[in-house]
Amino acid sequence: MDTGRRLVAGSRNRNEFVVINADDFERPKFAEVSSRQICQICGDDIEVLVEEEFFVACNECAFPVCRTCYEYERREGTQACPQCKTRYKRHKGSPRVEGDEEEDGDDDLEKEFNFGNFDSKETLNDPVTNLERPGGVGQSSLSGLGTFNTIVQTNGTNILLLTDGEEVDGISPDHHALIVPPYLGFGGQIIPSNATQTSASTQHRAINPNKDISVYGYGTVAWKDRIDEWKRKQLNKCQYIQHEGWDGNGFDGYGLENDELPMSDESRQPLSRKLPIASSKINPYRIIILLRLIILGFFFHYRLLNPVLDAYGLWLTSVICEIWFAISWILDQFPKWYPIERETYLDRLSLRYEKEGKPSELADVDIFVSTVDPMKEPPLITANTVLSILAVDYPVAKVSCYVSDDGAAMLTFEALSETSEFAKKWVPFCKKFNIEPRAPEWYFAQKIDYLKDKFHPDFVRERRAIKREYEEFKVRINALVSMAQKVPEEGWTMQDGTPWPGNNVRDHPGMIQVFLGHDGVLDEEGNNLPRLVYVSREKRPGYNHHKKAGAMNALVRVSAVISNAPYILNVDCDHYINNSKALREAMCFLMDPISGKKVCYVQFPQRFDGIDRHDRYSNRNVVFFDINMKGLDGIQGPIYVGTGCVFRRQALYGFDAPEGKKKKKAKHREASTQVHALDIFEEHRGQESESSLLVPREKLEKKFGQSPVFVASTLQENGWTARGVGFASCLSEAMHVISCGYEDKTDWGKEVGWIYGSVTEDILTGFKMHSHGWRSVYCIPKRPAFKGSAPINLSDRLHQVLRWALGSVEIFLSKHCPIWYGYRGGLKWLERFSYINSVVYPWTSIPLVAYCTLPAICLLTGKFIVPEISSYASIVFIALFVSISATSILEMQWGGVSIDDWWRNEQFWVIGGVSSHLVALFQGLLKVLAGIETNFTVTSKGADDGEFSELYLFKWTSLLIPPMTLLFLNIIGVVAGISNAINNGYESWGPLFGKLFFAIWVIMHLYPFLKGIMGKQDRVPTIIIVWSILLSSICSLLWVRVNPFIGKYDGPVLEVCGLDCN
Where are its TM segments located (predicted)? Predict the structure, then answer.
C-alpha cells in the first residue's frame, strides 16, 4: 500500500497497528542514499516491489536482506533474522518451508495490517490527505476500529487526538498524546506533546544507516477498540515511565539515560524462547500413539472374546495384568504429547540487569545444601559442592550458601571450617582463569588438555600451586574423617574446651555459624566472598522432625531472616555446580518481565559422574530426564526431583500464582468516544503486590509461625532484610525459627514450604505448587548445570529405588493423592496424569510379578494363556508389537536418547518392579494402615578402591529374593520346555515357541541383575557362564529323559510263563 514514504508498523500477533508519520521540519535529505538498498549478507541491491517500496524480509527490525538471501535462509539456514533472531514469516510468492504450517492464520505479510474491513488502498494512499479531510480516518473504513474525529497539526505533522478534543485526566483538549517509538529512547512510552516542542529535540537512531531517516518519526495508534489490549501488553513489557516523572511541563529527570528504561533493542528481547520439536518428528509420533490405542482396542477385543478354557486361571490373570499395563501406558504416554526444548540468552540477561558502571540488578539467590551422616556422605564430597557454589559466576553480594547438618556432626562442622579457609584461595583462582567445573576434585580429575583456550602466562604456575593446596586440604579432611571414626566416651569438645552441642544427635540445641560473608572476610585477592552459613536445627525427643523436608523448611526460615533472597536453589551434598552460569540460566526464566511471574521453579536435569560406561542399572535415568521431562515442560512444567532446582520463594510460601488480567467486556462501546491516554499510568500506580495487602496478624502467625521478623519477610516479594537490626539480633531470631516447636499449629509442611507426609517430599512439594496455578520450567544447558554421584552397586541402587517407591505409596494413601486432590486449582489434566503415574507405578509391581511368573508356569504345565492363534490374532499381535517398537524409536529420535540407554531403562524397570517396588508397596501399607515405621538405607555416595569397584561388590539384601526367584524359575521352565519338546517330537515345537518367547523376554530383562549377583568375572564373560549353565541343564535333563543305556522295544513285552505245559 502507498504510505507516502511513511513507515507503517504493526504485528498481527501483538494486535498492534501504528502509522508513524515522519516530521518534515528537519528531515534530512538522503535522496541519493535511499534510492537503493544493499543486502547486508551478499552485497546485492534489494529489489523494489510493485508498490515502489524496498523488499523487507523482517518486519520487526527491517534488517536489509534481499529476497534471494531471505529465501535461502528460510530454506537452508536458521529461518531467523540475523539481527533480531525473529523467525522469518513467509512473504507472498515465496515457497513454504517447514514450520510455516504452525503459524496461526494467514502467513502472507502483505495481510499483516489488514484488520477486518480496513481497505488500505482507499484509506491510506496519502496519510496526510486522509487525516486532513473531514472524516478521512475513522468514519468509513475504520468504523469498526474506533472513532478519531479530532486532528491537530504539530510541526507540520498531523497527529490524532486520543482524547477526542476533551480534557481527560489532566490532558488539555489541545494537547495530543504521542507514542514515541522505542528507537527514540523512551521505550514506546505515552507522553504529552509539549514534552517535545520541536522535532529537533529528539535524536533519531536509524536501524539501517543507509536507510532514509525520514521513514522514522512519531506515530499514533490507529484504532480505539484495541487500546486496552495494547495497554496491557505495553505494561507487561515495562515500557512506561512512572507518572511521578511528569510535572506538566516536561520530563522531570527522565531522559534518554533514565535507569528504568531499557538499554537497547537487544535488552528488550525475551530472555529465553521455546523450541518446539520439529513437526517431522512429533507428528508421526502422535499418529503412532493414536494407532496404538486403536490396536489396543482390537487386542483386548480378541483377548476377552477368546478365553482359554483349559487354562482359565492363567488366561484371566494375564488379561487383568495386560489391562493394568495398558492403563499405566496411557498415564505415562499422554503427558509426552507436547514435548518442547528451551533456549536461553545470557547476553540479554546481562544487558538488561548488569549495566556497565552500575551495580548489578540480578536477584539474590540463597543456596541450600543438605547433609545428614558424614560417614555415608563423605565430607570431601560436601566440601566440593560448597566450593563450586562459592565460586559460581554470579555477583558475590547476591549469593548465600546455607549448609544444613541434620546429623549435628562435629566432623561436618570442622570440614566446613576447613572448606571456608581453602575457599579464600580457590574462588579467586576459578574466577581469574574462568575454569570449569569449579569443584576441585572433578576439575583436577579431568582427562583433558587443561591448557586449551588458556593464554594467561601465570596459569600453569598458579594451577600447580592451587593443586598442591587442594591436596593438602584433602589430607586435612581425611585426617578429620579418620579421627571421627572413634568417638570419645565423653563426646567431642571444641577448641575452647566446651562440649560439642551436638554430641547427642537426637537431643541438642540449634546451631548457626557464619563462616564467610561478614566482618570483612576477604579472599587472597582482597575481594569479598559469598556468605557461608552452617545450620543445624534443634532436635528434642517427642517431636516429629520430618527428616529432609523439615531440614529444608528450617533453612527457608533461617535464610529469610538473614538474607531473604527471592530465589532459592537446593542441591544435595553430592551434587556440585558443573556449569558456573547455572544461576544465570535459571534467571533467564525467573526474571523475565513478561513470563517469569508465573514460574515457581526451574528444574535442571540430573547428570552423574562415576557411572560405568554401560550404565548397567540405569543410574543416569536418561529416558526420564530427556523424554518424560521434556514432555511435561510443554504442559505445565516438569515435576520437582529433589535437587538441582531454583525456586521462587513466594511459591514455597504457598501463595497462588498471579493471575493474568482478564479482558473486561466494555459496555456501550459504541457510545464511548474517548480513549484516555494516561489511564495506563494510573493503573500502574494502583497495582500493588497481593502480599502487601493488609492481613490480620493472627492469620499470618498461624500460617508462618510466631516470628515477627520472618512474617514481615514473607510479605516482600523481591526480598528484604531487616534494616537497623544488628547481626546478633538476626542470629537470635534465626535461632528461634529453627527451634523444634516452631512449626506447631502452623501451616508448615501442609501448605507452606516442603510438604510433609512422604519420604519423597519433592513430588508433594511440586504437586502443591502446580495445584496453586504455578508453572515450572525445564532447563537443559549445553553444559550440564549440576553433576552428582549415584550408587552403582546393585544393592544400593535397589535401596534407592525402594525409598522413591515407598514415598509414592505414602502419597497414594494420603489426602494429597493427585487422583482426588486439587481439582479446584490450576493443575492441567495432562499434568495430573503425570502425577497420578508417579504415585501409581509401585502398584504395577503386583501384575508385573504375576506376568513374569506366567511363562515358567506355562512351560512347566504345558498350558498357555492364548488359544490357538488364528490369522486375525497374528495380525493383531504383530501390529501391537510394531506399534510399541515404533513408539519407542520415535521417542528416542526426538528425545536424543540412544538405544542402549533406552534398553537399560527397560531392563531396570523390570528389575526394580519385581523387587523394590513390590517391597515398598507392602512397607507402605504397613506404615499407613498399621503404623509400622520403616527405615530406609542412605545410599553410598562414593567408592575408594579403584574405578567402579563397588559395581562388582555383592551386598546381600532381602530385595534380591524376588528377582532371583523369577530368574531361576524361568530358566528351569525353559530347560523343561525344550527337553519336553525334544522328547515328544517336532509336533510339540509349534506351541513351544510362544512360551519360550515370554520366558526369554523375562530372562533378558533380568540379565543385568544376574550379572550383579555373579560379581566381577576377570577372565570368563558372564554371558558365557549364563549360557553354559542353561545349555548344560538342558543336556542333563535330556540325558535323563532319553535314558540311552536302556534299549527301547516297540513290540509286546515277553515274559517267562510260569506254567508247565508238558
Answer: 283-300, 312-331, 841-860, 872-890, 910-930, 951-972, 992-1010, 1022-1042
